Amino acid sequence: AVPERLTPNVPGTHSYTISPNAEWAFHTFTSFEVPPAFDVVHLPDHKVMRKTVDNAAVAERAKPLSGGPAEFVKVAAGNGLVVDAWLMKPPDFDPAKKYALIVYVYSEPAGQTTADRWPSMFIRALTSAGYLVASFDNQGTPAPRGREWRKIVYGNVGQLSSQQQAAALQSLEKTHPYIDPKRVGVWGWSGGGTETLDLMFRYPDVYSVGVSVASVPDQRLYDTIYQERYLGLPQDSPKAYEQSSAINFASGLRGDLLVMHGSGDDNVHFQGFELLVNKLLSLGKQFDMRVYPGRTHSISEGKGTTQDVYTNILGYFEDHLPPGASNAPAH
Predict the structure, then answer these.
(1) Which of 190, 208, 212, 245 is labelled catalytic?
(2) Is 14 a catalytic residue?
(3) Catalytic status, residue 265
(4) pLDDT value of position 329
């Protein structure tokens, strides 16, 4: 039988909570340019019976923060692999000039960053400050690209993802000459914080500034239901854990690195952060750190905390990776 589309033919991300009798649903729609909108629909005709939340005004207010819509692209990531990516530009963007680029990364099997859905407003805060911002999905992320795409990361978490992330970035630089390859930063949270460490440690010639939030520097210290799913048992796969742990490559750090963590993190325990700090100290590496007493994995508890986190991420990039355009060298 020919597949029949049941959802609206509108590009973006649709999600549903369907009633027990399958006649009604709470429907959510979002895309990169459209903040989440919520309505009640009748099924199967998808007739909208009531709009519950409409965030169209948010989209209008956000428009001046970036230079036009995001550019969705496919880029080479080595060994014949092509991955999805997006690129956002600052206001008053001039393609004849060169810009600093910040990569927003996650890279873990638990999530993807290149789906067509409304991104964090902090992404637009970065473009508003004068940066290009990009993101890539390496193999292993939950993109609908088949079994091999997902399974290939078994026993090889940080090594493969960082290799593909770096290769994808360099491909984007070649096809977009207004990216300044000497001014590239990277940041991420949780698994993205871990990947930030991997990229800063393993590819110091590619990334010059990194901000790692709530990372897992040593894979042996994360919870069993997640880590053993992708790396096996530590006693059976010591090499896999060793090669997949960013802390074991900390000697490669040459750029500017800020690490941030909540001391009350009940997901990614503070012990790993302490091991990382001690490792960097033992190697004589200069770095910056910011600790939030008692905060959990979201580092959101307490008055002023969230503002402080994001102000310091942006501020660190502004201090070590100045934003804005520079004149491209004459050919």
Answers:
(1) 190
(2) no
(3) yes
(4) 60
Q: What angle do CA 11, 108, 70 make, to 5 degrees?
A: 35
CA distance 136 to 292: 29
Q: Which of 137, 218, 256, 265 is catalytic?
A: 265
Rounded Cα gap, residues 243 and 232, in angstroms: 13
Residue 297 known to be catalytic? yes
Give the Cα separation of 203 and 58 in Å (integer): 38
pLDDT value at position 328?
A: 64
The CA-atom distances, in angstroms, between 187 and each of 46, 138, 203, 290, 295 are 39, 16, 14, 15, 20
**CA separation for the pair 216, 313 (Å, rounded):** 18
What is the helix (H) or strand (E) element at residue 202, kind and residue range?
Answer: helix 191-202
Q: How many CA atoms lie within 13 A of 84 on its CB side?
A: 17
- Of residues 157, 285, 300, the one with CA closest to residue 222: 157
DSSP at 216: -
Q: Which of 14, 46, 269, 297 is catalytic?
A: 297
User: In 3-state terms, what secondary structure has residue 51?
Assistant: strand
Helix, coil or strand: residue 231 = helix
pLDDT of residue 91: 95
Low-confidence ranges of the chain (pLDDT < 50): none
- Burial (CB < 10 A; 0-12, 13-18, 19+), residue 6, is exposed
